[in-house]
Design a protein that fits this description.
Shape of chain A: elongated
Oligomer: heterodimer
Number of helices of chain A: 8
Strand order of the largest sheet of chain B: 2-1-3-7-9
Structural class of chain B: alpha/beta
Structural class of chain A: mainly alpha
Order of helices and strands of chain A: EHHHHHHHHE
Mean pLDDT of chain B: 87
Radius of gyration of chain B: 28 Å
Bound molecules: protoporphyrin IX containing FE, iron/sulfur cluster
Number of domains of chain B: 2
Mean pLDDT of chain A: 87
Chain lengths: 231, 366
């Protein structure tokens, strides 16, 4: 007797193209690095040793890594925006901006099914579900703010022309201190986002048997063929 | 008296300063303004030939610290000549006249030099409760300011109060204090920031106006770039300690004695634009960081509300004074963890049903 959990035949769908996956992991890596180095910049370790300044440069190095990762993070994000216009239908920009009624209906459905767990009918969107999409929309806004504040405060400490393009933003929020403050607060948005994000990926894999986790590695999702019409 | 209007140099001479003193003053000013050495001649010539600028100096809601700073300038000519001996036609704190006489002299200057005089404002303008918190000569300060601004060629806002509202504007701003640029529009306004500003910077701005007859380049907050384009952090002599990650942990620790960086004691040098590290204070003797005290950011707007002074991260608005974004972040992180744990439990209950269902389906199939 063959043991199988699935009643219906499984179809394989290619959802996340290579550039999207590449963006995703580079983004994840740079954010982790930025959060760690950023936190250290905000609250450096107490090192009590009687050395002279010329013998050390560790804080300068941490800041350098932060700025370098900041550049990677920013241009990677710019690339993703571009891909939102040329990529496949799962990665296009209109998924993320909730302009249609159907998106709001689905958002409510997802809240009832996955968060409150008061509804049992599974959601079958192939790409992200609508709630995830709107969350990523907010995340993109956070990316923009983090880049504006980050490069804005960077402008004062760099001779390069690129950060200077952002210096107009700092006075809008009231000055460097306010910009740094926003920059610091947003770090917590990223940290909490990451915790929930990773948990939810596991959750979906755990309950939906569609291979969400590995979809961001290989690009495929597994779909029970009779569901297809519902997405 | 129908002699030609006096120049700064005329006054310098009549005050008994030597030509040498005068030239030293000119080159010092040129250096502060960032003019290259070949331009010193231009400064000398301007001060020798151009008539002095008539100045009206108004005092609003303030502590007079800016005037104090100014008259303690390192060079005698700054205080002596620019300020009380020659240029000042009206200023409440330093002029000899008082009462009606003073008011008359103000009126006279405003009429005689209409469109030519420089208006200097020290202190905030209070607009709360009809302006009752600051009245001079029977008028609210707001009215006096508007009246004087009318015929001014340019306005210099001295110090944080005039530039940004200062301590009076700090929460909850009981008197409705406002900065000059919030009251006056349509006139060039130069914000000479600081609480107080450095005397040489104040003199430098006046000399700049005299020499070049135009407004110096200003930054986005209206501050002259010649003095406010770099952060205190960029010219701080403790900066190598910052890059090396050597920080003072508390005011009396070993690291404080070694002169390490004051970042962790809340130094606002990295977010403050001023020239304290270069020109310094009291004849270039020292400045706060050199004396072991973190910068409090006095040349930035709202610095009183951006506290606490001795903490790197500001308080999070709406929470207690020591609650930083980090504390709130950790709190939210813990709450997220709890939420996830609860969610995971219900998920497992749901999954058990699913497993049972698919087992049952399999049994049915076979
Ligand atoms: C996920 C993205 C990012 C996170 C989580 C992050 C986090 C942080 C944190 C927590 C700080 C310390 C702020 C403080 O307490 O004063 C900081 C500082 C800073 N960040 Fe970021 N950051 C990010 C992206 C960027 C980007 C894209 C740039 C652009 C180059 C940037 C540039 C800076 C600069 C210039 C500083 C101040 C460093 C200093 O003055 O020593 N950051 N960051
Ligand atoms: S003491 Fe303040 S201004 Fe000086 S290097 Fe440290 S943080 Fe910067």
């Amino acid at each position: 007797m063959e043991e199988t959990v699935h009643k219906s035949p499984i179809k394989i769908k290619y959802i996340w193209e290579l550039p999207v996956r590449f963006y995703h992991w580079l983004n994840a890596l740079s954010i982790v690095v930025l959060c760690i180095t950023g936190y250290i910049i905000g609250d450096p370790f107490a090192i009590q040793k009687g050395t002279e300044a010329y013998m050390n440069y560790w804080f300068g190095t941490v800041r350098f890594v932060h700025f370098a990762a900041g550049y990677i993070f920013f241009f990677n994000f710019v690339f993703r925006l571009y891909w939102g216009f040329v990529g496949n239908k799962y990665s296009r920009w209109y998924n993320y901006v909730p302009l249609k009624k159907a998106q709001w209906v689905e958002i409510w459905d997802v809240i009832k099914t996955d968060i409150l767990q008061i509804k049992c009918k599974p959601i079958h969107s192939l790409g992200h579900n609508a709630l995830a999409d709107i969350t990523y929309f907010f995340t993109f806004i956070a990316f923009v703010l983090q880049s504006l504040t980050g490069f804005g405060i960077y402008a004062a400490m760099s001779n390069s022309w690129f950060p200077k393009l952002f210096s107009w933003f700092v006075p809008l929020v009231g000055g460097d201190l306010a910009a740094r403050q926003i920059h610091h607060i947003l770090m917590w948005f990223f940290i909490i986002f990451a915790i929930i994000h990773v948990y939810l990926v596991f959750y979906h894999d755990y309950i939906e048997r569609r291979g969400v986790t590995s979809s961001m590695i290989g690009g495929w999702k597994f779909v029970e063929s009779e569901e297809e019409g519902e997405c | 008296m129908n002699e030609k209007p006096k120049t700064v140099y005329d006054d310098v001479k009549s005050n008994g300063h030597s030509r040498r003193d005068f030239l030293k003053f000119c080159s010092m000013m040129a250096a502060f303004m960032g003019i290259k050495s070949s331009g010193v001649g231009q400064v000398v010539e301007a001060l020798e030939t151009k008539p002095r600028i008539p100045i009206i100096w108004l005092h609003g809601q303030e502590c007079t610290g800016c005037s104090e700073s100014f008259i303690r300038s390192s060079h005698p000519i700054v205080a002596d000549i620019i300020l009380d001996k020659i240029s000042l036609d009206y200023t409440e704190t330093l002029m000899a006249a008082s009462g009606h006489q003073a008011e008359a002299s103000l009126k006279q200057t405003m009429e005689k030099y209409k469109g030519e005089y420089l208006l200097i404002v020290e202190g905030a303008t209070t607009v709360g409760d009809g302006g009752v918190y600051c009245c001079i000569g029977g008028k609210t300060f707001e009215n006096r300011l508007k009246e004087a601004a009318e015929g001014a060629k340019a306005i210099i806002a001295w110090g944080n109060c005039a530039s940004a509202g200062g301590v009076q504007k700090a929460n909850p701003n009981p008197t409705g204090a406002k900065a000059v640029h919030e009251i006056i529009s349509g006139k060039p306004i130069i914000n000479v920031q600081g609480c107080p500003p450095i005397a040489e910077v104040m003199a430098g701005v006046v000399v700049h106006l005299l020499v070049f007859e135009r407004i110096p380049q200003l930054d986005a907050h209206g501050r002259p770039k010649a003095f406010y384009s770099r952060r205190v952090h960029d010219t701080c002599y403790r900066r190598p300690n910052f890059d090396a990650g050597l920080f003072v942990e508390s005011f009396d620790d070993e690291n404080a004695k070694r002169g390490y960086c004051l970042y962790k004691l809340g130094c606002k040098g990295p977010v403050t634009y001023n020239t304290c590290g270069v020109i310094k204070w009291n004849n270039g003797v020292s400045f706060p960081i050199q004396s072991g005290h973190p910068c409090i950011g006095c040349s930035e707007a709202n610095f009183w509300d951006n506290g606490p002074f001795y903490q790197h991260l500001s308080q999070f608005p709406g929470f207690g004074i020591e609650t930083t974004a980090d504390k709130i972040g950790v709190g939210l992180g813990v709450a997220t963890g709890v939420g996830i744990a609860a969610h995971a439990v219900t998920t497992n209950i749901r999954k058990r049903k699913l497993i049972q269902k698919s087992k049952k389906d399999d049994d049915d199939d076979s």
